[in-house]
Amino acid sequence: MIQLSDVSIQFEEPILTNVSVTFQEGKIYGLVGANGSGKSSVLRAIARLIKYEGKIEVGGSNVTQAQSGFQKVMYFEHSEWFDYNLTAMDYLKLYSKLWKSEVELKEVVSYWGMEDYVNRKIGKYSLGMRQKLLLSLYALSTSRYLIMDEPTNGLDKDAVILFKQWLEKEKVSGKLIVFTSHYHDTIFELCDAVYEIENHQLNLVDQ
Ligand SMILES: Nc1ncnc2c1ncn2[C@@H]1O[C@H](COP(=O)(O)OP(=O)(O)OP(=O)(O)O)[C@@H](O)[C@H]1O
C-alpha cells in the first residue's frame, strides 16, 4: 500500500493541497494532468526526493521524515539520469546487485531487444534505446512499488506492446504500479484507476 494522508507539495506555487489517497498492491494507477500540474512532483514525493507536508506511507512505514537508507520504492525518473559514459550492462549488473534480483540479465536483455547495444556506451543510444534500458531496470527491481514517470516516452509501437505485457505480469505478481503519462496514451487501458491533477487535488477520472 502507498498511502498519502493530507499531503501538500509547494514550490513557488502550490502543487498539491491536503491530498489523501491510497494505492493498493496488485493494481495499476495512472496519473494525468496538464503540463506543469505536478505529476512528476507527486512521484518524487513518494520516492522521497522532494519535501512535502503530511504523511506518505509505503507498505505501512512512515516516511514523513526524509531519510537516507534502503529505498523501498523503485523510481528512475527519466533516461537523462544515466551516466552516458557507462553501458547498459553496467547498469543492469548494478541494479541486479542492488535489488538482489534473481532475474537473469540475459532474459531482460533479450526481452527488451538490447543485444546489439548492451555493451555500448549509453551516450550513443537513441531515446527509445535508453528508455528500454530504464524499463529493464524496473524489470530487475524486486521492489513491490514501481513508480514510473512517462514510461512509454520514446518507445515505438512494438516496445509499447512489450511494456504492456510486462506491466500486466508485474501486476499479477502483486506489485503496485503508479505511472504518469499524457492524456492519450493507450497504457491507461491497463489502469485500475486514473487520477487527474486539477486545482491541486487528485481527482478520480471516469474511464
Ligand atoms: N525543484 C523545483 N523547484 C521549483 N519548482 C519546481 C521544482 N520542480 C518542479 N517545479 C515546478 O512545479 C510544477 C510542477 O512540475 P512537474 O514537473 O511536477 O509537472 P508535470 O505535471 O510532471 O509536468 P510535465 O507534464 O510537463 O512533465 C511546475 O510549475 C514546475 O516548474
From TrEMBL:
InterPro entries given in the database record: AAA+_ATPase (IPR003593), ABC_transporter-like_ATP-bd (IPR003439), ABC_transporter-like_CS (IPR017871), ABC_Transporter_VariousFunc (IPR051782), P-loop_NTPase (IPR027417)
SUPFAM superfamilies listed in its UniProt record: P-loop containing nucleoside triphosphate hydrolases (SSF52540)
Superkingdom, taxonomy of origin: Bacteria
Keywords: ATP-binding, Nucleotide-binding, Transport
Record carries keyword NAD: no
CDD domains found in the cross-reference section: ABC_DR_subfamily_A (cd03230)
Residues annotated as domain ABC transporter: 2-207
Gene Ontology terms for molecular function: ATP binding; ATP hydrolysis activity
Protein name in UniProt: ABC transporter ATP-binding protein
